[in-house]
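With this grant's support, we have settled on a layout for protein records. One resulting record is reproduced below.
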Amino acid sequence: MKVSLIESEGAIMILALDEDLMLQKSVALTDLSLFKYILYQVANEIIEMDTMGCVSFDEEEYSIILVTGEDEEEILLRCRALHEQVNRVLFKNTGITVTGAVGSCVQDALQLHTSYQRATQMLPCRLVGGGGTIYEWNERSLLLKQTQGIDDALISVLSGVLENNEITYTLGIKNLMDAMHLDKDSRFRIVSFGYRLSTRLADAFGDGSKKAFEAALILLRDFRDTDVSKVDQSRERIIELYLNIVHIFVQHEAGGDDENTIVTQAKTYIYDHYAEPLSLGLIAEQIGVSGSYLSHIFHKNVSESYIKFLTRIRMEQAAKLLKSSSEEKIYDVSEKVGYVSVKHFSHVFKQFFGMPPGEFQEKYRKAERPSL
């Protein structure tokens, strides 16, 4: 980079897209790199215009900027101005905010690595303080201490996963929950924490975990509209969400089933148990995946939702029973295909076949009578 700090000081600033907003806008995983490149281009154009420093990519595809100045005060002012401009442009054009993180100011180019490391320590502060702002290095920062607690919990989760110790990673997830400081407006924070957990797991398992990462993002997208206004009630649901994310990576690493196999297992279970009270959660539990993940891949592979598929199977079986014998009672048929309420069964049957079950049965009874 031909950097010289002999007559000035410098600091590394990281600019990162707020991924939780990208999830909320359902940005495809394949487009993440494109959005990150757009951020890089915007930052580069602003820097070239104002000669504020130079920009590059790191291995996480964050935009890394060397900002120079006469002293620390000038450098921080430039960082704030640069972040404000980039954030405004990106939000205006994409609806996605940008977080900035600034490392310590240094006087020697050989110390820039230290500045970069400190910027990476400040970046996770957005998990607690929110995105769309800038976080400047301060080793006594309360936010920094909170994010260190988050990283400790994540390390515990990763250790448990790599050691295949469910107790350890479950405890780590509970510690992660404690670090989140949930309140009634915590929905986006839950998604942000989940995204960080997913990226750390993806890093741990390497390039082969892309499908697991995509499945984890599906869970987070499905969860984003969850009502977490009642914090005490939502805690167990959030723990379940994070455990499901972990299980996706563990299953994938162990050579777990692909989507087609999972859907086939779900359909087989429905065929075998349609006469019983069924729920998506129950089927998912029997297969060993999360309900939201099963819902997504079922609709994707079958071209109809789980509930429509189940209803169709029940109605087809009910029609067979009504056709097979004119003596079948409607309430018996209702019970045999999994409906507790005869009234509900009759309503669904009429919607499906265009006539009540009694009329349907009478129609086929007449068809079977010999003509005189």
Remarks:
- The beta strands are 9-17, 53-57, 63-69, 98-102, 134-136.
